[in-house]
């Protein structure tokens, strides 16, 4: 893959879906699949699938389709899932605890190493064998353990300073749930997760369907 070539965000966002669907095919002992069959399962056109995969070399054979295991492994490599990332969670409230208890991160190569908070009631608590530490210990922990990624589940008022400190200490990526868009050094990859945005998009789509149905009923009643 040409690492200097700029791939559109829309294509990158579809890659995890391809990976997930291909994993399900493997679980069902399906060894090969055409772009048409894959499109029917995913709700993406066959042409779109071919265009997306051609950004990374194609992977298909005319008259054969795609070797499912090979394509699954190659997309995993493109997504960097053959690497291992050590991560910490900063902010161990309800969301932080839920993330800490989600064991499937390890299957994707993300290994939980530390938990940090400022709340005295949470410090000393253990989740999956990992003790919650005071945030004052975070700098030495990140540097000594060569932590790659931090999940941020902090209040809006706290997140920017913590993110800047983590970037300064050598963190490579931040998964930010704090409802603040972070703008840091280009050396740090930031993925902002706005749960309320996703909820509003769902609300928009429900409302759109409702309005469409109402419009159709009005037509019928004329």
TrEMBL record:
TM segment ranges: none
Localization: Cytoplasm
NCBIfam families xref list: PRK05472.1-3 (NF003989), PRK05472.1-4 (NF003990), PRK05472.2-3 (NF003994), PRK05472.2-4 (NF003995), PRK05472.2-5 (NF003996)
Record text on subunit structure and interactions: Homodimer.
GO cellular component terms, semicolon-separated: cytoplasm
Entries under Gene3D superfamilies matching the protein: NAD(P)-binding Rossmann-like Domain (3.40.50.720), Winged helix-like DNA-binding domain superfamily/Winged helix DNA-binding domain (1.10.10.10)
NAD keyword on record: yes
Example GO molecular function: DNA binding
Family: Belongs to the transcriptional regulatory Rex family.
Domain CoA-binding: 80-181
Keyword vocabulary terms for this entry: Cytoplasm, DNA-binding, NAD, Repressor, Transcription, Transcription regulation
Binding site for NAD(+): 91-96
Taxonomic lineage from the root: Bacteria, Bacillati, Bacillota, Clostridia, Lachnospirales
Provenance organism: Defluviitalea raffinosedens
DNA-binding region(s) from the entry: 17-56
Keyword Coiled coil part of the UniProt annotation: no
Entry function: Modulates transcription in response to changes in cellular NADH/NAD(+) redox state.
Pfam families named in the record: CoA_binding (PF02629), Put_DNA-bind_N (PF06971)
Gene name for this UniProt entry: rex
Protein name as it appears in the record: Redox-sensing transcriptional repressor Rex
Any one GO BP annotation for this protein: response to redox state
């Amino acid at each position: 893959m040409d690492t200097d070539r700029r791939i559109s965000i829309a294509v990158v966002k579809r890659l995890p879906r391809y990976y997930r669907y291909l994993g399900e095919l493997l679980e069902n002992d399906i060894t090969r699949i055409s772009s048409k069959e894959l499109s029917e399962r995913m709700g993406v056109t066959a042409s779109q699938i071919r265009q997306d995969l051609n950004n990374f070399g194609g992977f298909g054979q005319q008259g054969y389709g795609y070797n499912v295991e090979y394509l699954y492994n190659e997309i995993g490599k493109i997504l960097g899932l053959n690497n291992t990332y050590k991560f910490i969670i900063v902010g161990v409230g309800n969301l932080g605890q839920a993330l800490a208890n989600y064991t499937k991160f390890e299957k994707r190569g993300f290994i939980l190493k530390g938990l940090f908070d400022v709340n005295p009631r949470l410090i000393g608590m253990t989740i999956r064998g990992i003790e919650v530490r005071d945030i004052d210990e975070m700098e030495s922990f990140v540097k000594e353990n060569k932590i790659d990624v931090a999940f941020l589940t902090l209040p809006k008022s706290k997140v920017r300073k913590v993110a800047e400190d983590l970037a300064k200490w050598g963190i490579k990526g931040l998964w930010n749930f704090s409802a603040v868009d972070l703008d840091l050094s280009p050396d740090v990859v930031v993925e902002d997760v706005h749960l309320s945005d996703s909820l509003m998009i769902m609300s928009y789509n429900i409302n759109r369907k409702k309005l469409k149905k109402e419009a159709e009923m009005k037509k019928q009643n004329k």
